[in-house]
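Two records follow; treat each independently.
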Amino acid sequence: MHQVHSKGWVTVVFWLSSLPLAETVSAAAPAAPAKAAWAPPLYGFCMDIHDAQKRTLPEQAQMLRELGFDGAGYPLWLDQNVDKNLQTLDAAGLKVFLLYASVNVNPNQPAFDPRLPDAIRKLKGRPVTVCVLLRGFKPGDPQGEATAVKVLRQLGDVAAEVGLRISIYHHVNDWTESLLHALQVAQKADHPQVGVNFNLCHWLKVDGDKDYRPVLRENAAKIFAVTINGAQLGSNAWTDGLIQPLDRGDFDNRQLLATLREIGYRGPIGLMCYGIQGDARKHLERSMKVWKSWKETE
């Protein structure tokens, strides 16, 4: 700063530093941080079950990659094919994001296939969530609770060994057919590696009269996996009803995705294709076109 005296007045002159103008402005007013991008990967799920072309696993992997999918979800292979199948997906450049297995919560029966723990350990280093379908009693029967909690903790410990997570897959007619019940069970298991899925079609079938948004907000920390699809509100049918490609149905998937973003969900999104008839490539291509259009308008 330099002072210049002129006829009794003091004129104050400020000399700017030698910093470039951009640096001076930046130091005075830091730019707001850029909004973090939200771009969950999309994977195909159950797209093989009703495929009219009956594609083999290598053909499925190639198809998904060509269409722009990031990965796939399958039953958890418990036999000697697990390594070969994982290598097939790796070779196609696809990640395995979800693998599922059945657990019996009836204490009078074996809880799970004895090969399950080792199969989970083989998934170390992969971005996969191991989902369990809890069966053995009618939906919500309290007889299953003690066994469910015990088994979930046991599998949670196995998953923790290899940095994975266990998620309860709520499914119509299973013991945990309701997401709300699955959340209660996860809370009672009280294990950091144990959470739940949000499966849109099963939510609509069981709890479709409720607003899912407060449920997701209140349980954000326990939502470990998500599957979506086009769906017709009020329908009771799976095919052409509660499970359709993304370009059909009147359920607002954009609102669901916005809610997932709001609660901080950072996992992949599964595209449920169970029951969709015809050539899988055709309906997968339609869904991918919609998915890309959503990303472009984010």
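The next record belongs to a different protein.
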Amino acid sequence: MKIKTLILYLFFISTIACSSSILANDEPVKPIAPVKEINLGQVELGKKLFFDPRLSRSGFISCNSCHNLSMGGTDNLKTSIGHKWQQGPINSPTVLNSSLNIAQFWDGRAADLKEQAGGPIANPGEMASTHTLALDVLQSIPAYVREFKQVFGTTEINIEYVTEAIAEFEKTLVTPNSRFDQWLLGDENAITSTELAGYSLFKNIGCIACHNGESLGGNSFQKMGLVSPYVTTNKAEGLFGVTGKDMDRFKFKVPTLRNIELTYPYFHDGEAATLTEAVSIMGKLQLGQNFTQENNAKIVAFLKTLTGDQPSFIIPLLPASVDKTPKPTPFD
């Protein structure tokens, strides 16, 4: 009798352990996986290009200016600052985990990271250069010519190689090992009871319908203002600007919630200054919910568990310009 009881007890314990180990498979959110297959040569070259302000007309703005890797991959401004202090038209989305997105930019006009990387260089409101000028700068610098030869097998630098290298570097900017991921993988002590209650609310009230998967977003386009219209002075019209279809007006790519506590302010117009404000607005506009202060705080507590390990590396030393390198024109 005692042996039978012991066997039943051991079976019960093993069942609990098994359930804990497959917890991630039972949830609509999946842990962020560390990056696996990358081209190391392209990554190192792309890292330099990501930080190199000489790709801009002014010689002052780099990819990292708007996607600052010390600030959650954003600039923490409502809208970014472009060439000659121009105000950008839209909030800068985080570059962290951007390789998991269904498309790039709020309106999805770039299919992937490679296509996205070329846009800001030639945008007159951003880096305000041209692909031709940016390539002339790179081609004039012997150290870059040598590195492109090592990585791509040719001394002829073109925009395809430039954007491919930047995209390959950006693929490494994933943020695994958040406390919530640790919980998903079976560590029940990784988050508090309040944070877990916030996650339950997040699922039960419907946030999970759009914010799911590895990135808790980034995998669909949804209308901003499902229950009631979102009032803003921002002129962006989302996916409509790409498709021209009226049904896509004010549909934006659902932003990732990974590292969300670092990527304020929120929404495409940057009008929500805090997570508390953003949760309240989204509850009303998208779900028809008026959250109590307590429930709002629980959801915010959960969202703060989504901050993962931030990219960490030595800032690249950029190769020096030479006499024939085209000079920047920051004030023209």
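Discussion point: The longest helix spans residues 2-21. How would you locate this feature using only the token line?
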